[in-house]
């Protein structure tokens, strides 16, 4: 399957944190061709294993990209059939007013998010953002009909399909972090052309947006020698400073900061330079906010890296990435994995 086709399939799907099982079949079907074994653990993480060529005790490298997306959840049904809702994961209420949504009840139901018209607002309300608790979802049915199709706790996603922008850029919901899943899929295909000593575990993690539970348990089970979180970074837009953002189309961001293993980060930049793969530096002095946070604190601690795909408008329904960055990210990861051996691992991990 073409990587962009997989990305479109995943972004158009429904997989709010805790409900990622809706995407399992698509991921397993795609990963199956390029790996030796696939399993789904008790929390729902999809773990695809690719065997290395070494006959000795193999190095274990784990790539993690989270499959869950932010979304909404039904919390009440009004007398007139309107649906009250809350958020799952970090959502700015200002980005959802007026959006079309799909309520995932007994069947998928189209609706719209509305609120009090500006004409009827008090003067004191004009300069204030509308709170989520003051919004409703209207699917057009009576209370009785709504109750027959929808339960409290049903999830809701923004109705949006992946769309091509100009050039090699695309816009969609849930590119955070299904773009990362696309990267690890493309990395599988690149590694299929190479020899690598390390055993590689490609993990589509769950529940990253609500506490990284998937990465915690999958890292504990795999106990890798090296962990790499593949996630998204803040794509450059006019209001962002260069030091806080990444340019689209100029390669992935290699994260530099306190949570990142310095020896592995240095090796990753050397590999990028050796194979003329463009990259940028992403400065994250504290917590990375990615699955790497879970990796570094698992068992005795896993030496970890973060590779970030530049992404604009994070945590909205119109996130934007450049497919060129996905290709460059995969090439960099594949060559990095191929460069790791039993002979050089200890030196790389030494402080």
From TrEMBL:
Free-text cofactor note: Binds 2 divalent metal cations per subunit.
Cofactors named for this entry: a divalent metal cation
Gene Ontology terms describing biological process: proteolysis
Signal peptide (from-to): none
Entry's Gene Ontology molecular function annotations: aminopeptidase activity; metal ion binding
Keyword Protease applies: yes
CDD domains per record: M42_Frv
Positions that bind Zn(2+) 1: 66, 176, 231
Record keywords: Aminopeptidase, Hydrolase, Metal-binding, Protease
Binding residue positions for Zn(2+) 2: 176, 209, 315
Name of a matching Pfam family: Peptidase_M42
Gene3D superfamilies: Peptidase M42, domain 2, Zn peptidases
The organism's place on the tree of life at top rank: Bacteria
Active site residues according to the UniProt entry: 208 (proton acceptor)
Family (UniProt): Belongs to the peptidase M42 family.
Protein name, entry field: M42 family metallopeptidase
Organism name: Tissierella pigra
